[in-house]
Every structure is written in structure tokens, then in C-alpha cells.
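Entry type: protein chain
Record version: 2
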Amino acid sequence: MNYQWYPGHMTKAKRMMEENIKLIDLIIEVVDARIPLASRNPDIDELGKNKARLILLNKSDLADERENEKWTGYFQDRGAFVVKMNAKTGAGVKNVLPVIMESCKEKIERDRRRGIKNRPVRAMVVGIPNVGKSTFINAFAGKACTKTGNKPGVTKGKQWIRINKNVELLDTPGILWPKFEDQVIGAKLAMTGSIRDEILNLEELSLELLGYLHYYYDGILEKRYGITESDDRVDMLEQIARNRRCIQRGNELDYGRAANILLEEFRNGKIGRITLERVETEVDTEQKEEK
């Protein structure tokens, strides 16, 4: 399956970000804690050169806590500030404001020396579709000041939100990059819901997820679905269909329905706290590239 989705408004969003970056003191990047690298747009590193950076590990309660800690260290080692949170429940959101002020203390001190008082920190909130940017802003501001939705592509224009006298946020539409160089990244984005299900083969996607869960979280599928785990992913999907009574006319198994159940329960955390990316793998890749 070839994963691809790049609506026209995303091109406009990138152009708008380029035009506004000079107004910004800090880039707040919301990522999905289950896929911290796959849910980052590499364009943002280029756009945000020489700007303070804050990474928000959103949906961290759905991710493996051991991996959350490793990813926190990974981004901190690369000069970013990090906060774990869940924008939907509000968990961890109160920790964001002090970290914003800490990340921009040099800028605040510079303004003070120049006699500039009460100029708020201006932060651009960025992230790929459906990662929780607007939900975070609403939770952070304490009011529904942006449109939100449980599908990608809800925010299509920019808007400034004043949080308090010290902080202003610039909300931006979610942007993916025009072509995924690595289809594994596309698969991870699809699994977590950042690509619209309507354009995906969900049965094929569910087989990818089954393979990962069996490899990294051996026994978790048996516990949730009462199946016998193996390297045969099709057999595991058949067992899930049978055990969840996904039957269609002619007493045939409904693989599509079983795939939907698996993906929905993964996305909602019902299978368990799962992270689809490992720090160790990324560090190994970086070291090989440096050599």
C-alpha cells in the first residue's frame, strides 16, 4: 500500500508559516507520543532554525511510559524542551506555561536589557494533521478558541490566540510533507489516524499493526483478543474476526470489520500503552549515517 495524502491547503499552510516565522520566538511542536519521529514534519526543522523549540509529547498516556522517558531524553539531548501531556484530558497541560517561559528566558532577559517591557512571548504551534494541536490550544487557553475535530485537516487558516499577558500563540493548519520517502512512516501515520481511513486499505494496515504488536509486545494480543499469537498475521486477524464474531453473509469472516476493531482499539488505548517507534533504532540509524 502506498501511503500519501497532501491536500492543497497544506501547501498554503507551509507558505504561511514561512512568512510568519520572523515574528516568532518559540516553536511549539505537537507530536504523537506513540510515533514521536514519524509524527514530525522534517520541514519544521528547517523552518525553525535558530528558534527555541518545545516538543509536546501528546497522547502520552496511550504510549509506553518507558518509551516516553527515552523520547524525552532524546529530544532534550538535541536542544529541545519537552512536556508529556494529553490535550484531550488536560493531563500535563499546566506544565506547559512554565516551560515556555523557561525556554524563552534569554529572549525575555534581552528585552529587559533593552528596556522592552511586557512584550509577550510569541509561539507558533505546529504539527501534522490530527495530532491534537487545536485540542491543546483550547486546553491551554481554557476555552474553545479554535476549531477541533477527530479527523485530520480541521484547521485550515492561521489565528492568533492570547493566552495571557505573557504568551500569544499562532495556530497553524497541520502539514504533512508532499511525499513520504519512507513508507514505514506512512504506515505509522495511518495506524495512529493522521491519514484519512477512507483512502486506506484497512485490512492491510491491520496486518502491519499485528506484526508490530506481536514482535514488540508479545502476549498483548492474546490477552486482549484471546488468540494464539504467531508470525502468521493473517491467521491472527482471522482469529480476531472469529472471536469478535465478525461474520458476514454466507458465514464468511468479515476481515474488514475485524481490522476496524483492531485499529480503533489500538488508537483508543484499549489494547494497552503502545509506542510504535524505539529510540534505540533511531540512534543506531543516526550513528550509521554519521559514519
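Comment: The first helix runs from residue 8 to 20.
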